[in-house]
Amino acid sequence: MEELFVAGSEKSKMTAREKVKVLRRLMERAGVHQGPACFDALGAKLIESAGFPFCITSGFSIAASRLALPDTGFVSYGEMLDQGRLITEAVSIPVIGDADNGYGNAMNLKRTVKGFIAAGFAGILLEDQVAPKACGHTRGRKVLPREEAVMKIRAAVDARRESGSDIVIVARTDARQAVTLDEALIRCKAFADAGADVLFIDALASVEEMKALCQVSPNVPKLANMLEGGGKTPILNPKELEEVGYKLVVYPLSLIGVSIRAMQDALSAIKGGGIPPSGSMPSFEEIKDIVGFNSYYEEEERYSTSTNQKP
């Protein structure tokens, strides 16, 4: 079986262009491929260490962790790009970047695509909501007119070509909640015809609706969003998702959700006069290893001289 990515020190040499190739090869392979969502570089590194072949940034989680605000359009293009660059630099697995609605019209979106390419993303997720956009599983979703939404995907394809990149374009529609399922399916077909590489309808409400999406443009991979903790879409395991017809599956809230609960529990323990129990957190030695102290010390030895050696 062909290896999708290289282990060891060679991983750090993988370029953004190579990461795109890895993601495209992944989409050609059989089965469903899981990609948890991250909101910072440490989370992405943990995802990679756990053996996942790709990850995706979560706009919901970045808004929460960076701003302590809801995912209702507060995060700007610059903030998302800055956070994304730190994430892509931390790992060698491909990262799909959540670019919201492209932060404006078709011209703004082209700048967004080129910026995400320069930041090292292997894929970019673009949606058709009007501003201010929000999480697709929340109330009050509104989408652009179909013609404008399709034109923005064409603009993304043009930006990719102009950049000499092959970044994977994930086209998302929120029309299922904003309009109807039929409108969402029509939009997905139009997105595929415009050059999108992956299709995604957020907040589908049943397995039957998920199957309907997977019948649209059958040669174009589909992405499933398993929103944990009570979203609108049924939670299926990877085998079930493969049977429905999906190729990629993401988990947007797992890392931010468990982080929130863990921090609440730790603060409760401290307020009660103690510290978090040993089983609830890694040891100091484990934390140092996770964030890279041991690797740092090993590499530091390569540059040791007689004047800076430790006594």
Strands, count: 8
Q: Portion of residues in helices?
A: 40-55%
* End-to-end Cα distance: 49 Å
Low-confidence stretches: 5-11
- Spatially, the strands of the biggest sheet line up as 6-5-4-3-2-1-8-7
Shape: globular
Pfam families: PEP_mutase (PF13714)
GO molecular function: isocitrate lyase activity
Catalytic activity: D-threo-isocitrate = glyoxylate + succinate
Protein name: Isocitrate lyase
Task: Give the topology.
Blueprint: H1 16-28, E1 33-38, H2 41-49, E2 55-57, H3 59-67, H4 77-90, E3 95-98, H5 106-118, E4 123-127, H6 146-163, E5 168-173, H7 175-178, H8 181-194, E6 198-201, H9 207-214, E7 223-225, H10 238-244, E8 248-251, H11 254-271, H12 284-291, H13 293-302
Parallel strand pairs: 1-2, 1-8, 2-3, 3-4, 4-5, 5-6, 7-8
Helix pairs in contact: 2-4, 5-6, 6-8
Protein name: Isocitrate lyase
Catalytic activity: D-threo-isocitrate = glyoxylate + succinate
GO molecular function, one term: isocitrate lyase activity
Give a brief description.
The chain is α/β, with parallel strands linked by helices. The protein has helices at residues 16-28, 41-49, 59-67, 77-90, 106-118, 146-163, 175-178, 181-194, 207-214, 238-244, 254-271, 284-291, 293-302; strands at residues 33-38, 55-57, 95-98, 123-127, 168-173, 198-201, 223-225, 248-251.
Notes on the protein architecture:
About 45% of the residues lie in helices and about 10% in strands. It has 13 helices and 8 strands. Strands 6-5-4-3-2-1-8-7 form an 8-stranded parallel beta sheet. The chain is globular, with a radius of gyration of 21 Å. One of its GO terms (molecular function) is isocitrate lyase activity. This is Isocitrate lyase. It catalyses: D-threo-isocitrate = glyoxylate + succinate.
